[in-house]
Design a protein that fits this description.
mainly alpha; elongated
Length: about 60
Amino acid sequence: MSLDMDVRMKRKRVGYMLKVLVGNRRKADYDLGKTITHIDADAHYQRCMQCVQVVQELEALVKAA
């Protein structure tokens, strides 16, 4: 896979991950009648950490180019 293609794929992945995370945040902020469990919170945290990791990989790819 070319560098440009890898960068593009990682950018799309980050965009999708952020879209999901924002959707979850909106639910937590505005659906006040719903309960957020520790399992839900942990899953959200893990997704955040995955997003950070992909952004760091993307940063390394761009710096290497």
